[in-house]
Amino acid sequence: MKGLILKDLYYIKNNLKILIPFTILWGVLSLKQDSSFTGVIEFMLPFLVGMNIVSTTLEEERGSWKKYFKISPISRKNIIVEKYLVLNILTLLTYFVTSFVFGVLSKSLNFNNIFLGSKSTIIILFMLNYYLTITLIVGFRKSQVYLFSGVIVIFALYFGIKEIFPNILSSINILIENKPYLSLVVATIIFIIYMLASMVLSYIFTKNKEY
Q: Angle CA(190)–CA(198)–CA(184) in degrees, nearest 5?
């Protein structure tokens, strides 16, 4: 497992150069205390880090990893678990680090806001985990179509529920506003179940896949 994590971290390190402009912009805006833009970048950085982690599958498709896997003692289960662990831990860690640094630079550090703000990162993780699952099953190149289709379906469901069952969304908004900690716990539990289901599906659909 340690070797798998180091392999992905090596791939990610080579791709993180694209984050340098965002990081510099975020740092400048933090010093200027421009919360309107830094708030967006605080979630853009975790999203981009997560996308980079998913893109490690493309590096594996391009490289000799497929041949190595056939003769290695590494199980497919370990590969799948490692992918999800690295994706979720690094994405969350990026959010907490950027939020903390922004709070320090802008002199507005508030641990309560950082903690409650993680709900938005959980929403990002839902999408990233869906993307990773599709990528593991069909491959990185084909996954782009499924990702786009999934986004369309999500928006269609959202607006459909909003039109047909408006009370459901109103109830959710009331819960989030009046009981933020409870809503965070509920969102976290739902996400954990979703992540575990994604891992199981990834294993089921790839256990007989030839590398």
A: 20
